[in-house]
Specification:
Length: 238
């Protein structure tokens, strides 16, 4: 993970950009600001992300979040996360052939079938069928829906399955899928790119909210049980 010295090296690359606030008096404070945001990332990634930023048409001094987003962008590229248009193409090309397989017994039975006729032929066909239905090796050639990336499959699942995605209006199907995929990708990117302290805070808040909700449910349930017992007691006393 990056050290303050690593962050200082990063700042040396960008300190002469327009709008740079760095001077001899505040360099330590700026190093600290960048370090808080970037310290969980390895130096080589930060260094390449800085070069990535400098190589684009963005000549102004960046905030640390911009360097972090460029580092995340590099990671996404290296992971080959498909773009929305590429993801839609994977949906359209989802049918993949899974070749079948036969064992040595099935191969022998098939060879024998070629030499038989009449009743013997039908009996051998039944024997082959019975064998292949029970054999752990033999499998037929099938075409199945298979997506080239898990994000595509997840989007299809969240939309309610392939039948809910595809209709007789391919233009609308494409627009709806791309919107859903982009939203999912943006959310996952935001989660992955979070500063660790922010991510930890969110997880703690989520846990606290679940505990509060459970406590409220249990309290309400107890109150309802107490009311029922009270009503029962009042009915028996009459």
């Amino acid at each position: 993970m990056a050290t303050k010295q690593d962050v200082f090296k990063i700042l040396q690359r960008i300190k002469y950009l327009p709008n740079s606030p760095i001077d001899e008096k505040n360099v330590d404070q700026i190093v600290e600001m960048f370090f808080v945001i970037l310290k969980d990332l390895p130096f080589d990634l930060l260094d390449q992300a800085t070069l990535f930023y400098l190589g684009q048409d963005t000549p102004f001094f960046p905030m640390p979040g911009k360097i972090r987003s460029k580092a995340l962008e590099l990671q996404m590229i290296s992971l080959k996360i498909p773009t929305p248009s590429e993801a839609w193409g994977m949906v359209l090309n989802r049918n993949t052939m899974q070749p079948g397989a036969i064992c040595s017994i099935s191969f022998r039975l098939r060879e024998e079938i070629q030499t038989l006729i009449g009743g013997e032929y039908m009996l051998k066909i039944k024997e082959l069928s019975a064998h292949e239905s029970e054999c752990e090796v033999c499998a037929p050639t099938v075409f199945r829906d298979s997506y080239a990336h898990p994000m595509v499959a997840r989007t299809i699942h969240l939309l309610g399955g392939l039948n809910a995605v595809l209709s007789d209006n391919p233009v609308a199907d494409r627009a709806r899928f791309i919107q859903a995929y982009s939203e999912l990708l943006d959310r996952e990117t935001a989660i992955v790119g979070m500063v660790p302290s922010v991510r930890d805070y969110i997880e703690q808040q989520e846990k606290r909210l679940l505990e509060d909700r459970q406590q409220a449910f249990e309290t309400g349930e107890r109150q309802q049980i107490n009311r029922q017992w009270k009503m029962l007691a009042e009915g028996l006393s009459r």
